Amino acid sequence: INAEYMGTPSECLFFFEMKISKLIIYCLISFVSHIYTYSIKHYDLKFIMKDGVILHGDASVPIPEKEGEKFPLIIWANSWACPEFEYVLKGIEWAESGYIMVEYESRGWYFSGGQIDTAGPLDQQDSITVIDTVLLNQTQWNIDAQNIAFAGISYGAGLAALAGANDERIKTVLLMSGWGSLQNALYAKETPNLIYGNLLVWIAQIVGKAPQELIENYNNLLHHNNIVSTLKWAAVRSPLTYIDHINAKKMPVFVSNNFLDELFSPEYQIQWWQQLNVPKYLLLNQGLHATAELAGLILPKNYVFGQAKMWVDYWLKGIQNGIMDLPPVTMQLRNDFNVHQRFESWPSIKSNNTIWLMSHRGTKEHGGLVLKSSNIQPKDDNFDIIYFEKNTGLSAGVPIIGDLLQVYVDVPITVNIPSVQRKGALVYMSSHLSKTIRIAGSPQVFLTVTPNNERFQIVSYLYSVDLLGTGTLIAHGPYTCWNCTVGVAQNVEINLRSLFVDVESNRRLALCFSLYSDLYQPSNTNSTLNLMFSYMNDARIEFRVVDRT
User: ∠ CA(274), CA(279), CA(281), 5° rounding?
Assistant: First the structure.
């Protein structure tokens, strides 16, 4: 179905250029040697929604080689700010192996009509209508309507999860760099995700039709206004809200997320995955948001897409390829990308939870960090105080760029621990490790603090420190309070970013704290803000250590 577009001359030119770009891709691929068997046809599509909005899409459809042959259907929803031909290369590849591959551009993006709904009720209804429309071609395209999957990366993964929860026709979903809880993605521990939030809203206004509601809700989070209604808005858009629907229909779920994803942090995706009572699979890769998956849209060999292909081959075609015999959790090691360690569940029985207690700094260079199982048990009624300072020497690196360099160029994010400023930061240091340890999962920090202001933010950093005092960032995480009681001690729990990394013997662990990071929207920047740390209630960090064999 050839889509039409009417707009200004410049918009029509851009629309024409987009179509030409897709045509060029099709032509280039026609010269590439094919590793699969089916010839395919390509279709430009338009989908008319219930409210009259038109969405654009395309399809790659295999041609049967024998009479009565049918093909499973996989529908892909676009990522945030990506055009309709985002999946065209992978669509052609998988169509040649016997899948009908349909992708569509959700409402509000580029030349699809309507405004961006951010995976809301309109988007959720749209996914149903897209399936309805595709199935009108059931006979012509030889669609196996009993074997339908919904898939996507990032925003598309969220749309796919919600579609799977709401449509009984969907047999399985592929969720790559998606979210379980939009509340946690944007406002975990009441901390606005400043960098990624700004980026998402900005780009939505450039290449999409962003509604005022989206901008207002984001500003509500930044300034802690109308929080109840804003979080309700996010809950409607969260697969976690519909977890009972997914579990009731026993829909198999494939999940892939990346350890350095600062948008849809893996620790919260793990929490959602743990609540799924269905056949499920979890890949935790090294990379930033969507980077491990996006590479697979271009490169023919990609670990994530290779595993995803095995998943749909099993669930949609019934191919006994052994994927269901494998342990369902896989983690990729930061120190060596060739290492993918599998676990029967998470937390795994092959892992041990270790507890490291913090002790008073006082006049010393740093406080102590002691393994609780040792004979030394620090416990005292002393306290330490730090003040708000922007430049403390602690850092999680340059946003986005620092993480990219760390993952793909092997340039670690480092700080000089001995030069960390004492007034605005606290450092707790372990002794030298006697052996290499492999840390896995989501470290948690437990503190007792007393603020002198009702609003404050704590940022926690975990570093691996060498003999010269250079700390390499392992993980970090924030906690924000907007209405705490002044002068009253309170318990604080901070979730650090999930990780899978080896810390070598003779290095030390450094657990550090400050009251500011440029990654997050602060609740208070008053220079008189201070926070008192006490140690009577076992101030500590907990993380899991796994066997390296």
Answer: 65
Query: What does the CA dihedral 127, 132, 137, 139 come to, rounded to 10 degrees?
Result: 130
Q: What is the pTM of this model?
A: 0.92
Report the pLDDT value the prediction gives residue 378, as an integer from 0 to 100. Answer: 57
Query: Is the per-residue pLDDT at 430 higher than 70?
Result: yes
Q: How far apart are CA 113 and CA 401, in angstroms?
A: 34
> Which tokens go with 371?
């393994």
Question: ∠442-483-397 over CA atoms, to 5°?
Answer: 40
CA distances from 76 to 101, 103, 163, 468 (A): 8, 5, 11, 50
| Residue with token string 């699969």 | 36
Q: Is 107 exposed, middle or buried (0-12, 13-18, 19+ CB in 10 A)?
A: buried
d(CA 210, CA 521): 22
* Amino acid at the residue 359: S
Task: Show Cβ contacts of residue 43 under 8 Å, excluding neighbours closer than 6 positions.
Answer: 1, 58, 59, 61
Q: Which residues contact 338 (CB under 8 A, 6 or more apart)?
A: none
> Given this model, what pLDDT does residue 299 score?
85
Mean pLDDT across the stretch 438-442? 97
C-alpha triplet 258, 130, 99: angle, nearest 5°: 65
Comparing CA positions, the residue from 131, 139, 135 lying closest to residue 69 is 139
Q: Reply yes or no on whether the pLDDT at 29 is more than 60.
A: no
Cβ burial of 180 (10 Å; 0-12, 13-18, 19+) is buried
Say whether pLDDT at 414 is over 90: yes
Contact 508, 479 (CB under 8 A): no
pLDDT tens per residue across span 230-255: 999 999 999 999 999 999 999 999 99
pLDDT band at 312 (very low <50, low <70, confident <90, very high): very high
Please give the Cα distance from 82 to 105 (Å, whole number).
8
**Is residue 1 pLDDT above 80, yes or no?**
no
Dihedrals phi, psi of 279, to nearest 5 degrees? -60, 125
Q: What is the pLDDT of residues 360-410, one digit of tens each?
A: 999 999 999 999 976 666 556 789 999 999 999 999 999 999 999 999 999
Q: Name, in order, each residue with C-beta under 8 angstroms of 16's C-beta and a sequence gap of 6 or more.
A: none
